[in-house]
Amino acid sequence: MHDHGPGHSHLSETEARVRALETLLAEKGLLDPAAVDAVVEAYETRIGPRNGAQVVAKAWADPDYLARLREDATSAILEFGFTGRQGEHMVAVENAPGRHNLVVCTLCSCYPWPVLGLPPAWYKSNEYRARAVREPRKVLDDFGVTLAEGTEIRVWDSTAEIRYLVIPERPAGTEGWSEEALADLVTRDSMIGAGLAKAPEGAA
Amino acid sequence: MTRVHDLGGVQGFGRVPWEPDEPNFHGDWERRVLGMNLVAKAPEGWNIDKGRHARERLHPVTYLASSYFERWLEGLVLRSVEAGWIDEAEIAARIGAPSPEAPPDPARVDAMVERFSTRVPYDRPGTEGLPTPFAVGDRVRTGTADPTGHTRLPAYARGRTGEVVMRHGVHVFPDVSGNGGGEAPTHLYAVRFDAAELFGDEAEPGASVTLDLWHPHLEPAS
Fold first, then answer.
1. What pLDDT score does A7 carry?
2. B146/B81 same-domain check
3. CA distance A8 to A67
4. What are phi and psi of B36, to 5 degrees?
5. Does residue A139 belong to the interface with chain B, where contact is any CB pair within 8 Å?
6. Which of B67, B95, B113 sits opposite A16 (nearest CB)?
7. Is there a single domain that holds both residue B7 and residue B90?
8. ipTM value of the model?
9. Is B184 among the domain residues?
10. SS3 of residue B68 by DSSP
11. Are residues B205 and B165 in the same domain?
């Protein structure tokens, strides 16, 4: 059960208002509806967490790339061509044994769109925004993530135009894997810090 | 104190509404709202900070009861109304009118990918006239001001002492640009605060929060 806002009658009111606004803006020449379709399709089909997964996989597999990512994540991520709106200034933060990073935006819902696509509803929820800074360990419980006792938790509140990408720990048993195979283990949530990378199939 | 969008640390909220394999949108109207916000004409001098401030100015009860895309909808209405381009009566008059339909156009999708994959940075070259920046490792204390306008210093981090852990260079300062005062670029830092400094005895052990804060938010702490 989750909350996407008020109930159905209110929602159909909202739907009608959205349509009316679009009609009005188009009538006045303030909006091209075809551009709305095109930009949404761009984010639904081309710009998503698969981008970030490629960055993480390369960081795991290629020590030189990891060094470049640490030095200047914006440029290192641009090597893949990933940049643009909401990813102008990137910083990579690495998980390690005994250290976990978690990203939030308490004031709105800032999120690194070029590498992760559009933010999920939970990231934009009042619950996550309120609680992630105050009780990150309890929030991680909601995601089924339990960290070893004594693990340091670094929460990053994205208050500027710097966007943080979490580099999750590389799962054990993946030595020698290709970047492509590694990327399949990198979930969106793991790059926010709300999850861990997947263990390889068949691993304990 | 402050506006309700400033949610960090606010108590009483329940479980995070996580769902596995969540879709990008939970209704077609959300698609339209996102797309309209990205491509509708914006008023002269509009910027990302003014956009955030428009959503922050929603009535507190409306803000808290609204979903993200409802806030984006009302932020877009507000900016278009304030520009003098539309009014509520005109929206109301079009309720139930047929929506404009646009056929899919792959070439335009390509063009949008290119447009939104173009980097428009927020850092600004030059440090002339700026104060001497803090250094990584410096202890700093945040201000206690509670401004009526847009600010990126959340209430939970006001009047707290932390440590500069990164220097991000000189960036546009939203506390000015979001209020129509120009870019006012200044030094931007990542500042780390122990959770106990922010939330007291009940803070989780071993936790910290790092915020990006601008030079005017900070003063040296001994």
1. 52
2. no
3. 51
4. -60, -45
5. yes
6. B95
7. yes
8. 0.96
9. yes
10. helix
11. yes
Determine contact: A14 vs chain B, CB below 8 A: yes
CB contact under 8 A, B204 and A153: yes
In total, how many domains does chain B have? 2
Coil vs helix vs strand at B164: strand
Is there a domain that residue B122 lies in? no
Residue B3: name the closest of B126, B180, B125, B151 by CA: B151
pLDDT in tens, A50-89: 999 999 999 999 999 999 999 999 999 999 999 999 999 9
Q: Which residue, chain included where needed, has tokens 């981008």? A: A51
Residues B176 and B215 in one domain: yes
- Same domain? For B88 and B143 the reply is no
Catalytic residue among A12, A109, A158, A190, which? A109
Quick check: A152 and A98 in contact, CB under 8 A? yes
Domain encompassing residue B173? 139-220
Active site residue A125: no
Tell me how close the Cα of B112 comes to any Cα of chain A, in angstroms.
Answer: 5
Query: Could you read off the pLDDT of A153-203 as tens digits, one per residue?
Result: 999 999 999 999 999 999 999 999 999 999 999 999 999 999 999 999 866
CB B55 within 8 A of CB A108: yes
Q: Is residue B77 located within the same domain as residue B148?
A: no
* Record: contact B29-A15, CB cut-off 8 A: yes
Amino acid identity of A18? V
